Amino acid sequence: MSRTAVCVSLACWTLLACGGGDDPDAAAPLDAGISDAGASDSGPPDAGPAPDPDGEMALDWTLRVQSAQRLGGVAESRLARAPGGLVLSVTLGGAPAIFDEGGANPMTIGDTAEDDVTQALAWITQNGMLTSTRAVAVSDPIMSDFAALGWDVETLPDGTVFVAGRFEGGTRFGDDDPLATTFRTLRLIDPPNPPVTSGDAYVARFDPSHAIEWTERGETESPTGSHRVVDLALLADGSSIALGIYTEAITLGGVRLAMSPGDDQGTFLAKFEADGTVAWARRLRGTSEARAIEAFADGSFVVAVRYS
């Protein structure tokens, strides 16, 4: 089976593809030899590539994402399977951002430093070819010193992509798409330096052609409040369930979730219908950390959280 490893540095983000199997020139399917139970159904388990004297993994290909600004960088990165390969979500610390510089098909997002793309998606084939990129979030010029942070990316079999995380300040989701949406978080009137702003959770959905369909947010009641979506689970009907954390009372789809008395941080769940409507929102009493969520075909789901 193939293996993928990632590494992060201050100035760039590099995707490393590490191949297994007998033919080093042929990339095996990502799910080759794996049954639903997680066991090999095509012989004994893959023991991995032959040992290297120095203990290093042999690489099939690499793809680097970097900021053209000296002090720029990549803060967060997430991967998900997509038709024909992978989709990569990156949080950028300065535009323009260069994808696969020196590669066969390099691309740049953000033509100038003023066009401050703070989160982007890139589609990559299994053999490492960059096929397309697009901006997810762009900082509003009025509040250009804030950013959107992508904490999760998920896909449906038809190529629909969901991204989720946290944003601060003024952020436009969808860039110049017809259905682009701008949100602004709360900010103190006379902020210290740096200014204090709330951090709000968001979920956005992009169709198979990579155009944004909708963006929804959770709203905090105070400029010192902060919350984010940590993980998403997708259901077969196109709906999604978000798992997140919050530090002060928030509102999701008209539902207000208060903090439990004495708690500094809590966890929440929210279900988004396929059209972005918030079906329901709930808090998990007594919990302080959200880790992961997975859903089953019947719509039930399991979460991993930490109890206080």
Report on this structure:
- The chain is mainly β.
- It has two domains: 185 residues, no CATH class; 91 residues, no CATH class.
- The strands form six sheets. A six-stranded antiparallel beta sheet has the order 4-5-8-9-12-13, with no helix packed on it. The protein has a five-stranded antiparallel beta sheet with strand order 1-2-3-6-7, with no helix packed on it. A four-stranded antiparallel beta sheet has the order 10-11-14-15, with no helix packed on it.
Short structural summary:
The protein has 308 residues and is an all-beta fold. 0% of the residues lie in helices and 50% in strands.
The percentage of residues in β strands lies in over 45%
Give the strand tally: 24
General shape: globular
Helix percentage range: under 10%
Number of helices: 0
Average pLDDT over all residues: 79
Written as H for each helix and E for each strand, in order along the chain, the element string is EEEEEEEEEEEEEEEEEEEEEEEE
Distance between the termini: 39 Å
